[in-house]
Amino acid sequence: MGVKRSLQSGGTTLGFLANFFIILSSASNYWIRYSGGHSGLWQECNEGVCSNIPCDSRLMVTGGCMVLAAGCGFVGFVMGLRILCNEGYSRGQTTCSVFFISGLLLLIALTVYTVKNAWKDDVFYSWSYFLGWLALPFCILAGFCFLLADMIMQSTDAISGFPVCL
Question: Which ranges does the record mark as transmembrane (predicted)?
Answer without folding.
Answer: 12-32, 61-84, 96-115, 127-149
